[in-house]
Request: fold
Amino acid sequence: MKKVPSGIAPVIQIQKQTSNSLYTQIYEGYRKAIVDGSLRTGQRVPSTRVLALELGISRMPVLNAYAQLLAEGYFESRVGSGTVVSKSLPQRTVQAEPAAARSRGLQREGRQVSKRCLNALSAQGFYRSRGLGPFNVSQIGFDSFPLPLWNSLVTRHARNGGAKSFDYGDPMGLKELRERIAEYLRIARGVRCDAGQIMMVSGSQQGLEITSRVLLDPGDQVWMEEPGYRFARSVFACSGCVVVPVRVDAEGLNVAAGAKKCGRARAVLVTPSHQYPLGVTMSASRRLQLLDWAESNGSWIIEDDYDSEYRYEGMPVTSLQGLDRNSRVVYIGTFSKVLFPALRLGYVVIPEDLVEWFLAARFAVDIAPATFLQAVLADFIGEGHFARHIRRMRLLYAERRNALIENLHDQFGSLVEMTGTEAGMHLSVLLNGISDREISVRGARDNLWLAPLSSCYLGKTARQGFILGFGSTSVKEMPTAVHKLQTLVRSKGAT
Ligand SMILES: Cc1ncc(COP(=O)(O)O)c(C=O)c1O
Reply:
């Protein structure tokens, strides 16, 4: 007969020196766990033998307690499927309450969470549920991902795992992978680095979190692009920093405007290769101005280079870090766009003299990054699949981008205002006379994932529109998706 896996025991504190019998203590322990919702209906409980072993007692009191719980209907037992918490018990409503609602509830009742966390919640702004489908900004072209090849590398590493692969890895990340990334960054992005400066992280978000722990103190002011990447705002809010929005124009972040507003900011976060969300490329003169400002002020520049592998027009743009002669730039990259976001792998290129500080901060965060997928990725890059993948996907995304632009022109008229079409896997459309948040909520009901442009603004003068991802929508599906968008927007009287 198939072996039934054992369930997990609730915390039952057995006291041997009390007048309460062992049987009663086990019975009460289970009853309490069921009534307060920590054990849910249908959940498997351990066998009597396993529980007796875990509690270090004989099996008899456990058998008696289980018999009582079965008799009273708390447990049910079926041949072949073990003993479970009875499915006919009413599910307690507290379990279904979403985490966000619960945290707001806690706040209302005066239970104290940190001010930073409260700020982080509001910094995230409007939150739209995410789903898979047209225009989702984070979704990649999964239909063209080389899955069989990836799986064969995963299997190779799973089969060959020795003692080393079970231990903590290098806190900087797997050396072979860092060497390959350093080589790629030097050639393709003009980044000045070697493997010793690269720290592997679980995506840019963690890279930013560790960077802000190293460089920033609570109360420090940080420039952020306006509009900008709102998930980065949460990191600064959690670090207790004050975000200073600095407007973006056709040349990227307006350095003079930032200097006028808050000349002594401690750091700035920029996306110079493909500004998020407007998509402009930062001009050479702005780059030099920013480097000068950072140098003269002793400030840090955090460069988020999240999707520049896919560029369709104009000259390739190199990194800001490559222009820096004073080691003022911390460069953050990610595999979320170029491969896929579930991988949760990114990297930070650290100025050489700061590596020790980053290591100190990393120990506080997670000691060392997970090793398995780093090894898979090192082979993926080392065996030439990465470069091939970028070439293939660039063609595919270019087709999808062209189809989106054409359909937007066809259905909205040639005057539709678009920005950021030169690179990446999204573009933005600017629309007047609508509420982008309201349309986004309505779109989600129809499986259309519209990121509202206004949520990227911190100040009051937000522009309305949408950030439209095109990575996952095929050329064939594009007309229908754009038509749905057009219907939604027109029904709200946009111009
Ligand atoms: C501006 C920006 N930075 C970074 C990222 C990637 O974040 P992560 O590497 O944490 O997945 C994204 C993803 O959408 C982004 O839009």
In short: The chain has four domains: 1-96, 97-124, 145-386, 388-491. The two ends are 68 Å apart (CA to CA). The pocket of pyridoxal-5'-phosphate is lined by residues 138, 203-205, 229, 271, 276, 304, 306, 334, 336, 341, 346 (CB under 6 Å).
